[in-house]
UniProtKB/TrEMBL annotation:
This is Carnitine monooxygenase reductase subunit. The gene is yeaX. PROSITE patterns: 2FE2S_FER_1 (PS00197), 2FE2S_FER_2 (PS51085), FAD_FR (PS51384). Keywords: 2Fe-2S, Dioxygenase, Flavoprotein, FMN, Iron, Iron-sulfur, Metal-binding, NAD, NADP, Oxidoreductase, Plasmid. Belongs to the PDR/VanB family. CntB subfamily. The lineage of its organism: Bacteria, Pseudomonadati, Pseudomonadota, Betaproteobacteria, Burkholderiales.
Length: 325
């Protein structure tokens, strides 16, 4: 079932311009106490209010899990922002208070891996920052492959290089698209030994390419881990959702999520923190029909079981779903 997140108030103690599109926000507890512990790859959900509008966005923690005096997140201003990244970039200043959730980790390092291959694209570098702190502390063997469009968009390169210098078992490679530098995924994944795991975070095309390359070279899917904090574009045919408890029937449009359709109808309250398929708070039991799952919260086994779904991103396979709402 969905996580029961706790929320806490933090103060933005520092804002840094890292690239033309990325800012780093450092946040501290209002009373100066230590923040809750987390592991590499964890995220928090930042809840924001802008007048009558509310936003909830998940952001990876990029600071060291050993430095709990503050949390750090990196935020890219999205060209098609739905409000969250634009709000943080344009309206949040040093000294402002924010509400965040306690950390959760859906992108943890595999404890049984003998080697860790990290593949980042653009702002997808952020979860690897905290993971690399953890790998350095473990003394674990790892390599980072970081691709970005141009030199001015390569965030945190100096810090990454410094982390690697402090690590006895790691190496880093950068790939700048404007210079024609390409990452050979087939060669990279085809050369992994049986004890290695690969982790990818970044734009959807990069994630899809890594997963496909892993399939092509025979890497077991259990050794491939991925994370993307962006709701997929809602696409597909319209369908009908029957809300069994309330006796309501809701029509979901071709470009609409089930959650938005229920909210538009306005009669059944549904809790959802992230709206990106990562937090688990909108997990809903399926009574009839099948879902096409787009979330990152349920395991592959849970998705195949068709018992529950995340209504903020997932859709119906067919024309009708009956949900326990």
């Amino acid at each position: 079932m969905g996580n029961f997140y706790q929320t806490l108030q933090v103060r933005v103690s520092r804002i840094e311009h890292v690239t033309p599109l990325i800012k780093r926000f450092t946040m501290e507890a209002l009373d100066g106490s230590e923040l809750p512990p987390f592991t590499g790859g964890s995220h928090v959900i930042v809840q924001m209010r802008d007048g009558e509008r509310q936003y909830s966005n998940a952001y990876s923690l990029m600071s060291s899990p050993d430095a709990l005096g503050s949390y750090q997140i990196g935020v890219r201003r999205e060209e098609k922002s739905k409000g969250g990244s634009a709000f943080l970039h344009d309206k949040v200043a040093e000294g402002d208070a924010l509400t965040i959730t306690t950390p959760n980790n859906l992108f943890a390092l595999d404890d049984g891996a003998h080697h860790h291959v990290l593949v980042a694209g653009g702002i997808g570098i952020t979860p690897f920052m905290s993971q690399m702190h953890e790998l350095r502390k473990r003394g674990a063997s790892h390599e980072l492959h970081y691709a970005f469009r141009a030199d001015e968009h390569g965030a945190f390169r100096d810090e990454l290089a410094a982390l690697m210098q402090q690590s006895s078992g790691g190496r880093v490679s950068f790939y700048v698209d404007s210079k024609g530098q390409k990452l050979d995924l087939s060669g990279l994944l085809g050369g992994m030994d049986a004890g290695a795991h690969v982790y990818v975070c970044g734009p959807a095309p990069l994630i899809d390419a890594v997963r496909q390359a892993a399939r092509d070279v025979g890497v077991d899917p259990s050794r491939v881990h991925w994370e993307q904090f962006a709701a997929p574009e809602q696409a597909g045919d319209a369908f009908t959702v029957v809300l069994a408890k309330s006796g309501k029937t809701v029509e979901v449009g071709a470009g609409e999520s089930i959650l938005k359709a229920i909210e538009r109808d306005g009669t059944v309250p549904v809790e959802c923190l992230c709206r990106e398929g990562v937090c688990g708070t909108c997990e809903t039991r399926i009574l009839e029909g099948e879902a096409v799952h787009f979330d990152q919260y349920l395991s592959d086994k849970e998705k195949a079981a068709q018992q529950t779904m995340m209504i903020c991103v997932s859709r119906a396979r067919g024309g009708k779903l009956v949900l326990d709402l």
